[in-house]
Amino acid sequence: MIRTALFAAALAATTLGAQAQNATYAIDPTHTFVTFEVPHFGVTTNRGRFDKKTGAVQFDKTGKSGKVDLTIETASISTGTAAFDKHLQSKDFFNSAEFPTARFVADKFSFNGDKVSEVAGSLTLLGKTNPVVLKATNFGCYTNPMLKVEVCGGDFETTIVRSQYGMGWGLNFGIADSVRLVIQVEGVKQP
After folding, report:
1. Closest by CA position to 130, among listed 118, 120, 139
2. Which of 95, 90, 92 is nearest to 169 (CA)?
3. Hey, which of 79, 88, 113, 125 would disulfide with 102, CB 3.0 to 4.6 Å?
């Protein structure tokens, strides 16, 4: 009886300890960028980024699990060329008027030791949802010296096929279907 009570107490302490490690991190928009790279007729690479994004990450280092919910405003695309930005916002590409946001949601985190190595989820773009796996090329946590709070983040990348989302403009004359996404993300631990 005493042994059973001690086992139950140890199990409860272990469970509570694991749950205590689960934390929510608000996406820091000043240190989070979603950029894209698309081959341009096999000669150069077009690049751009989305400047407006919001979201949160729930992360449990001990339990090696997490969740991501990231929303990107498609009209915030920035290539450095206003005319190109407008074309990308049009119905030919992101159709920002009808589909103002893209959303990445994930709940499968893979680890290599203590570091996140991959995040699997789904990307919704132009009203279509497809699976996406983000590979980590860098990941870590630190105490931010100015905020005096933990910040976790990393560099992630993946390649998507834009025609799977109904974005087919230019495919018939040589604009690539594959789009490389490079994501730099940092999240600030919430109280």
Report:
1. 120
2. 92
3. 125
185's CB contacts (< 8 A; 6+ apart) are: 27, 31, 32, 57, 70, 153, 154, 156
Q: Residue 175 has what DSSP assignment?
A: B
Report how far residue 29's alpha carbon sits from residue 54's, in angstroms, rounded to the nearest whole number: 7
* pLDDT band, residue 16 (cuts 50/70/90): very low
Burial 90-126 (b: 16+ CB within 10 A, else e): eeebbbbeebebbebbbeebeeeeeebebbebebbbb
Residue 113 has pLDDT above 60, yes or no: yes
Q: What is the pLDDT of residue 174?
A: 87
Cα distances from 74 to residues 5, 36, 50, 65, 156, in angstroms, run 56, 12, 7, 29, 19
Residue ranges with strand state E in the chain: 22-27, 33-40, 44-50, 53-60, 65-73, 77-78, 101-112, 115-125, 128-144, 149-161, 178-189
21-189 is classed CATH 3.30.365.10: no
Q: What is the pLDDT of residue 21?
A: 77
pLDDT tens column, 22-77? 899 999 999 999 999 999 888 999 999 999 999 999 999 899 999 999 999 999 99
Average pLDDT (76-96) is 98
